[in-house]
Known about the structure:
Elements: H1 2-21, E1 40-45, E2 65-73, E3 79-89, E4 92-95, E5 97-100, E6 103-110, H2 117-124, E7 135-144, E8 147-151, E9 156-161, E10 164-172, E11 190-191, E12 193-197
Antiparallel strand pairs: 1-2, 2-10, 3-4, 3-9, 3-12, 5-6, 6-7, 6-11, 7-10, 8-9
Amino acid sequence: MNIIKKGIFLLGVLVMSMLHSHAVTPTQTDVLSFTISSFTRIAPVTSPVLTACITDRTGNLHAPMHARFKVITNSSTKKTLYLNAKTVTEGGYEDAMFTQGGQVYIAFANLAKVPASSALNNCKRSAIPADSPGVVAYPIISVSGAENKFLPDINRYELSVPNGTTMIDVNVGANVLRNSFASNDRRGFYQAVLSLTETDI
Length: 201
C-alpha cells in the first residue's frame, strides 16, 4: 500500500514537472515614447548697463551701455536669430540701426518730444545737426557670443546660435556720432528698443 502511494506521488511530481517544463509564459510589450518639440527661448538679462547720462557739451556718454540676451535652444542645427533696434518717431517705431563709414550705429529718440521721421532719416545720412533734432546716435562697438554679421540692406544683425545656452552681448560705445548731437536736441529721456528675435521683423 505504501509503495502504491509513493508511486502515485512520484508520478504526480513527474507530470507536474513535465507540465512546468513545457509551459509557455505569455509575453506582451508596450512601447513608451514621447517627442520633445523644437524650442528656442530668448530672455533679456537685466543686470547690464542699459541707461547712461551724456555730457552737456559733447553729447558723449559718461560710460558705455551694454545689453545682454540669454538664448536657450535645443535645435540640432544652428539657429538663425536677428538683432535689431527701433526708436519712436511721429510715424511710429522705425528701424534705428544704420551704418556710416562701415560703422554700425543705433539712433536714440527723445521720448518727451518725439522727433519727426525725417529727423531720424537725416541722422542716418549724416546731415547737419540742425536737420535731426531729437535724435542722437552711438556706435555698436561689438556683438559677441555667437557668429554674426550686419545686414546693411535690412539694417540688423544676423546671428547663428548653436544648441544649448548662449549669452549674446551688445556693447554700445560712449562717443556720439558726429553731427548727431547739438543744442537743438532737447533735454529729456532718449530711447532705443533692442530686440533679438527668431523671425526677421
